[in-house]
Amino acid sequence: MSRKDDLTGKKALVGNYRSHAMNATKRKFNLNLKTVTLLENGKKVTYKVSVKTARTLRKQGRI
Questions:
Q1: Where are the domains of the chain?
Q2: CA distance 40 to 48
Q3: Dihedrals φ, ψ of 12, to 5°?
Q4: CA 28 to CA 14: how far, in whole Å?
Q5: 3-class secondary structure for the chain?
Q6: Cα(55)–Cα(34) distance, integer angstroms
Q7: pLDDT at site 1
Q8: Among 1, 3, 24, 40, which is most buried by a count of CB atoms within 10 Å?
Q9: Could you tell me the pTM of the whole model?
């Protein structure tokens, strides 16, 4: 399963490791994912969202 935010669609970014000699090796910046449960139409639904999205949902009172 991909490391993707179920609500916002955010996914991992790609960049490079850089050594002291400036050699470049590919790497991924993965999201910090967290499982949250939300109520939708009276049912509990589980989503994998980034921690930043979870904080926004908590601020809005949806968690």
A1: 13-60
A2: 15
A3: -65, 145
A4: 5
A5: CCCECCCCCCECEEEEEECCCCCEEEEEECCCEEEEEEEECCEEEEEEEEHHHHHHHHHHCCC
A6: 11
A7: 62
A8: 3
A9: 0.76
Q: 37 to each of 29, 44, 57, how far by Cα in Å?
A: 25, 6, 11
Which tokens sit at 60? 């809005």
Place of tokens 């790609």: 14
Per-residue tokens: 15: 């960049």
Q: Are 38 and 57 in contact (CB under 8 A)?
A: yes
Q: pLDDT tens digits, the chain, 63 residues: what are they?
A: 678 999 999 999 999 999 999 999 999 999 999 999 999 999 999 999 999 999 999 999 888
Amino acid identity of residue 36, one-letter, is: V
Quick count: other Cβ atoms within 10 Å of Cβ 15?
A: 11
3-class DSSP state of 47: strand
